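Ticket #56: bound-state structure for zinc ion.
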Amino acid sequence: MAQNFLKVTCKDCGSEATIYSRATSTISCTVCGATLSIPSGGKANLIGCTVVEALD
Ligand SMILES: [Zn+2]
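RESOLUTION: The complex was predicted; output attached.
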């Protein structure tokens, strides 16, 4: 439960990305460069993307 990945889509360009739910660094969209997630207290804070599904 503590370690899982999320499939997300970028709000700006709609491209899919897989990000770690507890990523400790800022994650940017590889297509348009928008910020998808920023670290927040050990948990990724999704700010520029929408979760499609959680991957185990
Ligand atoms: Zn994008």
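RESOLUTION NOTES: The chain has one domain: 5-55.
TICKET STATUS: resolved
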